[in-house]
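Entry type: protein chain
Record version: 2
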Amino acid sequence: MKYLVEEFCQGRYDYKVPDQLWSPVFEYIVENHTKLKFCKNEIHTLWTVNGGHLRRKVKNDLLIAKVLSVSMPGYAGEGLVLYRGECRFLFEARKIGFCWTPKIEVATIFASGLNSVESGGVLLQAYAPPAAIFSGPNAHSSQQMQEFEYTCNPNLLENIQVINTFDKLRN
């Protein structure tokens, strides 16, 4: 397990690691974060690229939020209105994701595309006070992907509203 902790702290992720190993790794990180050295920019990129995959493995958003709060670069700006394209079933289950954008057109692409495959999608708008934002966009998100992704604690977002809905994509 300590090997996986070190790998995560260095910003490295192996998708082949079995699901059941990730919760103990994240619990260890939370319990020992003051003793660990985080490569925060690398972890930020890891999360930007693999966060959804890791989230499905850990299956505990509160634990993930605790890990992100100690391992991400942080945010020192103003509060923002942000958008997210979410799966309808996750929204209805109150399992809103961590990645948000100030670009409504980017969120719409996710709400009407990838996140509408299983149950339809919802386009969300929320106010993110500074305390809700783990980190602003990194180079991968802003320069390569043009998504301008803010990683946020969904539990601290305010005034979350559905501003559009999208039908389930048909095969």
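Comment: The chain has seven helices and six strands.
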